[in-house]
C-alpha cells in the first residue's frame, strides 16, 4: 500500500518542503486588486490558441476554493450543455464582465455580491473524475488510461464526504468574495445537472515576484513551500512534465490535458508547535529560516545525496531525501498548494492543513513518489482526509468549450 502523504509528492521536484507550489499561507492587503498572478495568461483562451487550460500554470492568488460536483445529467447531450455553461461562466468571470440588470420582477442573473464590475477571477480550472466514465454517458472507452478513483494510501483517513467527484472546479482570486460570487454564478447556471459534493475554501500568500528555485511562501508548518517547483514559464519543461501529448497512449481527445492529484491534508499543528526546531528541520531536511537544505547555506542549493550517503547532513528518512532521492527516479510534477483553516474539531483541536494539487503528464509519477515516502517521520504530524484523482481537460479552443473534445470528439 502506498503512503498517505500524497501532498508531499510535490517535493519530488526538488525537495521542497511539504510539496506545495509556492501558493500557501497568508493573505494580502484588503486593497489588493483582483488581477491575475504574474505568469497567468490574460485570456481564458490565451494559452497556445486555447489548446491548454490557462489556470494550470497560474502562479496563485491569495484566496481560492475547490468545489467537487456530482452530475445528475440524464444523457450525454445534457452533460455537454452543463460543461458549456460552466465554460461560458468561467470566461465571463475571468474577464470581469457582468450582465446588465434585468426586470425587477425576475430573479437577477447576477447575485450582486460584487460592486466592482472589474473584479474577476484570477484563474479557474475544470477537471473530471473517473466516475464520469461509468455507464451513464457512454464514455467508458474514452477514459484516460491511468485515471482511477483515488485508492486509500497508507494511513489515510479518507472521509467519503470529502473525496472524489465527477467534476472538480478550482477557482482563485485576490479576494474571497470573488470566488464566492463565481461559484454561485456557476451553480445557478447548472442547478439542474450539478450537485455540490464537497467544498473547501483556501488561502495562500503567493510570491509577488517568483524566482526560480526559491520562494517567500510558507505553509502552516512554518517551512518554505514551493522551493524548486518546475518553472511554469518554460514551455519545453511543461511539455515534458505536465501536458499529455500525442503518442502517450492516451485517447486522442486527452492531448493537452493533464492528470491532477488532489489531497486534503490535515496538519496536527498543535503537536508540531511543541516539537523542537532541530527535530522539525530533520524531518523536513531543510533549515526553517532560509529554506536551504541541511548543511547548505542557500535555498537554491541542490542536496548532494551521494556525498552525504550516510545521512550526516540530511537524515536518510528526511522528507526531501525520500521525495527526491536524485537517483533518476521520476520526480517532476507541477505543484500547487493551498492552506485551509476550518475552525476546530470535536475535541477542540485546530482543523488546519493543506490542499495539495499536482499536475503531471502521468499519474504514476505521483504514485511512485508516494511509495518512496512511505513511513517517513512526517506522518506523525499529518493525515490525508479527502481529495481525489482527476483529469484536467484540454483547453476550450478558439471558440469551443471545456469538455467538447471529450464529449463530441
Describe the model.
This protein is 18% helix and 19% strand. The chain is of the alpha+beta class and 409 residues long. It has one domain (6-408). The protein has an eight-stranded antiparallel beta sheet with strand order 4-1-3-2-8-5-7-6. A hairpin with a 5-residue loop joins strand 6 (334-344) and strand 7 (350-360). Helix 1 runs antiparallel to helix 2. It starts with 62 loop residues before the first strand and ends with a helix. Mean pLDDT is 86; it is low at 1-42.
Précis, in short:
Helix content is 18%, strand content 19%. The protein has 409 residues and is α+β, with helices and mostly antiparallel strands. It has one domain (6-408).
Q: SSE layout and pairings?
A:
Elements: E1 63-71, H1 76-95, E2 123-129, E3 167-173, H2 176-189, E4 194-203, H3 235-241, E5 258-267, H4 269-273, H5 277-284, H6 319-323, E6 334-344, E7 350-360, H7 363-373, E8 382-392, H8 404-408
Antiparallel strand pairs: 1-3, 1-4, 2-3, 2-8, 5-7, 5-8, 6-7
Helix pairs in contact: 1-2
List keywords for this structure.
409 residues, alpha+beta, eight-stranded antiparallel beta sheet, disordered N terminus
Number-wise, the strands total: 8
Strand-residue fraction? 15-25%
- Stretches with pLDDT under 50, minimum 5 residues: 1-42
Indicate the multimeric state.
single chain
Mean pLDDT, all residues: 86
How far apart the termini lie comes to 37 Å
The portion of residues assigned to helices is 10-25%
User: Biggest β-sheet: count, sense, barrel?
Assistant: 8 strands, antiparallel
Topology order in helix (H) and strand (E) letters: EHEEHEHEHHHEEHEH
Strand ordering within the main sheet: 4-1-3-2-8-5-7-6
Computed structural class? alpha+beta
How would you sum up the global shape? globular
How many DSSP H or I helices? 8
Overall domain count: 1
Give the C-alpha Rg: 21 Å
Amino acid at each position: 500500500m502506498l503512503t498517505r502523504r500524497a501532498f508531499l509528492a510535490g517535493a519530488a521536484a526538488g525537495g521542497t518542503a511539504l510539496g506545495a507550489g509556492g501558493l500557501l499561507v497568508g493573505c494580502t492587503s484588503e486593497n489588493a486588486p483582483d488581477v491575475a498572478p504574474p505568469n497567468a495568461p490574460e485570456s481564458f483562451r490565451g494559452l497556445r490558441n486555447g489548446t491548454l487550460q490557462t489556470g494550470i500554470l497560474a502562479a496563485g492568488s491569495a484566496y481560492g476554493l475547490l468545489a467537487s460536483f456530482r452530475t445528475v445529467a440524464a444523457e450525454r447531450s445534457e452533460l455537454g450543455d452543463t460543461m458549456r455553461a460552466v465554460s461560458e461562466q468561467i470566461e465571463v468571470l475571468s474577464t470581469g464582465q457582468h450582465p446588465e440588470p434585468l426586470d425587477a420582477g425576475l430573479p437577477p442573473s447576477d447575485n450582486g455580491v460584487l460592486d466592482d464590475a472589474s473584479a474577476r477571477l484570477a484563474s479557474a480550472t475544470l477537471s473530471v473524475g473517473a466516475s464520469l466514465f461509468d455507464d451513464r454517458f457512454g464514455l467508458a472507452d474514452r477514459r484516460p488510461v491511468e485515471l482511477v478513483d483515488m485508492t486509500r494510501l497508507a494511513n489515510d483517513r479518507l472521509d467519503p464526504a470529502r473525496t472524489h467527484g465527477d467534476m472538480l472546479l478550482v477557482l482563485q482570486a485576490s479576494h474571497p468574495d470573488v470566488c464566492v460570487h463565481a461559484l454561485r454564478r456557476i451553480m445557478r447556471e447548472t442547478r439542474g445537472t450539478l450537485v455540490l459534493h464537497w467544498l473547501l475554501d483556501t488561502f495562500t500568500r503567493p510570491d509577488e515576484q517568483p524566482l526560480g528555485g526559491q520562494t517567500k511562501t510558507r505553509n502552516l508548518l512554518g517551512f518554505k513551500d514551493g522551493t524548486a517547483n518546475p518553472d511554469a514559464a518554460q514551455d519545453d519543461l511543461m511539455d515534458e512534465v505536465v501536458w499529455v501529448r500525442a503518442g502517450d497512449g492516451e485517447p486522442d481527445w486527452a492531448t493537452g490535458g493533464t492528470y491532477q492529484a488532489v489531497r486534503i491534508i490535515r496538519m496536527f499543528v498543535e503537536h508540531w508547535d511543541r516539537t523542537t526546531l532541530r527535530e522539525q528541520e530533520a524531518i523536513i531536511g531543510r533549515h526553517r529560516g532560509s529554506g536551504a537544505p541541511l548543511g547548505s547555506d542557500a535555498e537554491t542549493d541542490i542536496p548532494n545525496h551521494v556525498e552525504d550517503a550516510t545521512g550526516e547532513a540530511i537524515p536518510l528518512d528526511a522528507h526531501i531525501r525520500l521525495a527526491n532521492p536524485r537517483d533518476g527516479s521520476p520526480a517532476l510534477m507541477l505543484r500547487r498548494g493551498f492552506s485551509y483553516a476550518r475552525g476546530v474539531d470535536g475535541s477542540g483541536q485546530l482543523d488546519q492543513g493543506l490542499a495539495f494539487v499536482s499536475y503531471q503528464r502521468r499519474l504514476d509519477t505521483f504514485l511512485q513518489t508516494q511509495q518512496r515516502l512511505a513511513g517517513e517521520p512526517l506522518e506523525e504530524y499529518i493525515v490525508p482526509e479527502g481529495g481525489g484523482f482527476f483529469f484536467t481537460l484540454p483547453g476550450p479552443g478558439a471558440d469551443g468549450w471545456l469538455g467538447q473534445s471529450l464529449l463530441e470528439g
